[in-house]
Each structure stands twice: as structure tokens, then as C-alpha cells.
Amino acid sequence: MKNKKELISVIISCFNEEESLPYFYEEINKVAKDMNDFNFEFLFINDGSKDKTLEVLKKYAKKDKRVRYISFSRNFGKEAAMYAGLENSLGDYVTLMDADLQDPPSLLPEMFKTLEKGDYDCVGTRRVTRSGEPPIRSFFARMFYKIINKMSKVEMVDGARDYRLMTRQMVDAIVSLDEYNRYSKGLFSFVGFKTKWLEYENIERVAGETKWSFWKLFKYAIEGIVAFTTAPLIISAILGLLFCLVSFILVIIIIAKTLIFGDPVSGWPSLACLITFIGGTELLSLGIIGMYLSKTYLEVKKRPIYIVKETEKDLEK
Ligand code: UDP
Ligand code: MG
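Above: the input record for the complex with uridine-5'-diphosphate. Below: its predicted structure, written as C-alpha cells.
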């Protein structure tokens, strides 16, 4: 028997979650009661919410000393919120959750049992269904995973959630990756360690609305591709090479045709098509290079990933 209780940090990123928080708080309290062999800290990250999320968190922090919160100066995005949580967590084990109960806290005891045996460093969760999601969104999500897994050496698991329980060692490894353009699904894979996947059916959020528009998800997907593979650069280089070859063959054909048939002026429509086609691929390649360059630009600036406005420590003042 260990004589000191181990600490589990629960990190919850919240952006306009005043409606979900009461349900979440009740649920996580139940789980903490069941797992009374452990101490808990609930570290809420208020990601620049415009509703009363911060007030709710303050209320909890005043009456419950397990509750900590970090409130950002503006909305920095879920990736920044997760990083802030991991960086500031104190636990021997750390778990990341959404505030909307789509990541059921009730899975925690089962997840912990797997870690406790010592064979794994991380227990992740993945949805096996995408029920309740617009079909077009599911289609693009599936396509994205197929493409990125072909292009990148780091494995991205389809349906994997950010909900996971990790050992301190793995958390420290992730915190040491302090890049600005964060794509956590890739980072979790990149640091290695052994992950066991728990599967569950998709659950719809308990209250409030999803914060991810289709456009936001699309940009996030591009972020993932640019962050974890340089394959698009190679593809554009190969395209360039291919067109050089095609143009070389065309030149030879045209010269031969002119010499044999003496027909130098016809064929301008095909020329117009070729010019627009090649112009298009040129712009595409330029765009691909630009994407990598812009990410590099943002990275070199070394701006902080998040800025804190207040935490639970300010309550004591
Ligand atoms: N979230 C955040 N910052 C953002 C967007 C979302 O902290 O800019 C949080 C949000 O409060 C929730 C979690 O990330 O706890 C997942 O968001 P959501 O439920 O909207 O995404 P979905 O489950 O629909 O993918
Ligand atoms: Mg959700």
C-alpha cells in the first residue's frame, strides 16, 4: 500500500460552457467520490468565454479547494487551452476532458485500471461511431484521416478524442514540445509511449452548442497536415518535373509537325488550355510552399501560446 495518495489532474477546456458546467461538475464529483483512493484537482481553463463561465468557475473554486482555474485574456483555441492545462497541472496522472460530457468522466476508473498495471503510459479514447454528426462532416473527417495517415509517419487514429489519461512522464514530454502551431492528436503520437485505446459510442453534448464550424475544422485539418508531413511539398515538386517532361515532348511534336506539314499557327485553343492549366498548378504549388512558410513565420516569432488574465490564486487577494 502506498502511504501517500496520488494526485489525478483533470483538465477541462471551456469556451462558453456556462450551461454544461453544472452537469459536468456534478458528474466529475461522482467519479471523484468513487475513486477515493486518490486526490483530485480539477483544472478548468477558461478560453476567453463571453458568457458566465468564469463566474461559475469562481463560485466552484470558492467552495471546493480541488477546483483551480486559469482564465485567458481572450480566446486562444482549444489547443492552447490544453497546453496551458498540461503545463500547469500538478498530478501524477493527468486527464484531458471536454466540458460538455461528450468525454464521459465515468470512463475514468476503467482507464485508470489499465494504467495502474504499468503496461501502458496512456489510455486514449476513440469514438467508433459518429452518430449525431452531419454526414458530410463525417465524410470529410474520414477522408482527412486516410490522407494524413498515407502522408505522415506519425500515426493519427481515426475517431481518437483528446480525452485521455496519461502518466506524468508522458505529460512532461508533451509540455516539452512548445511549438506554436499545435496539433495535439499528432503530438500525442509523436512523443511515443504505449497507448491503449478504449472504444465508445459517440455521445451528444449535454448542453450548449459545438464551437467547431466546418471552416474551423478544415483549417485545423490543414494545420495537422502542415505540422506533421512535408509530403505536399514533394508532390508539388513532382508535378513540376512532370510538366517539364510534358512540355519537352510537346516542343518536339510541334517542331516535327511544322517541319513535315508546315502548319505553324493553328492550335491556339490547346495553347490557351495549357497555359491556364500550368498556371493553375504553379499557383497551387506556390500556395503549398506559402502554407509551410507562413507556419514557419508564426513559429519564428515565438509568441506565447496563451496569455493568462487571472487564476484561482487571485481569489485570495
Ligand atoms: N473549446 C475551447 N476553445 C475553443 C473551442 C472549444 O476551449 O476555442 C472547448 C469547448 O468548451 C469544449 C471542447 O473544447 O469543452 C470541445 O469543443 P466542442 O464540444 O465545441 O467540440 P466538438 O465536441 O463538437 O468537437
Ligand atoms: Mg463537444
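Notes for the reader.
The chain has a mean pLDDT of 86.
Residues 98, 100, 102, 205, 210 surround magnesium ion (ligand 2) (CB under 6 Å).
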